[in-house]
Amino acid sequence: MEVHHVTEGAETFTCNAFLVVGDRTTLVDAGAWDGVVDEIRTYTDDVDAVVMTHQHGDHVSELEAVCDAFDPEVYAYDHHPERDHSIDDGDTVQIGDDEFSVVYTPGHADDHVSFVSETALFSGDVVVHDDGAFDYGSFGRTDMVGQSREQLIESIDRLLDRLPDGVEYMYAGHGGVFQGDVRDVVETALDRAEKREPKYPDE
């Protein structure tokens, strides 16, 4: 699977946006960096689809610009003016050359979904490998309005149930790309979330 982190060079706050080149060239999240369209064009002239993990501003702000530039089909759980297809738990979407299962993973956001194949996980913000709180096995914050630690714990548990043993790549909404035992990273995140302690000292 050919994956490019197209917001890696951003100097403004944004999520990780991943361009997956293949039979169905797909952007996972649009990000909030105004240079994302130019960066995508360094790899391809066509984007067939955009799949959204959720619609927090750092993930969706550049969606309109991406749609104006490439006219992709847009998949999202909740309504968005650019959405063409609604997706829900148990659905299947093609990302690049591979089929991914949609797993509904709320808690950090009510509309949050993750995408799982036999070898890769696009986890959005529900689970990340490393961030400012933890270096291995972290999870999305749940201290803001509309968020729920209990829902997040249930979501990570659901994700583990649906995660094939062979998954070795994790592309999260923040932090670094991880290659290795993805199940262990997710289990570590679940253990930390279940302690129900503040993720950040100022929570």
UniProtKB/TrEMBL annotation:
The keyword Zinc is assigned to this record: yes
Pfam family membership, one: Lactamase_B
Keywords: Hydrolase, Metal-binding, Zinc
InterPro entries xrefs: MBL_Glyoxalase_II (IPR051453), Metallo-B-lactamas (IPR001279), RibonucZ/Hydroxyglut_hydro (IPR036866)
UniProt domain Metallo-beta-lactamase: residue ranges: 14-174
Cofactor: Zn(2+)
Molecular function GO terms recorded: hydrolase activity; metal ion binding
Protein name: Beta-lactamase
Organism: Natrialba taiwanensis DSM 12281
Taxon lineage: Archaea, Methanobacteriati, Methanobacteriota, Stenosarchaea group, Halobacteria
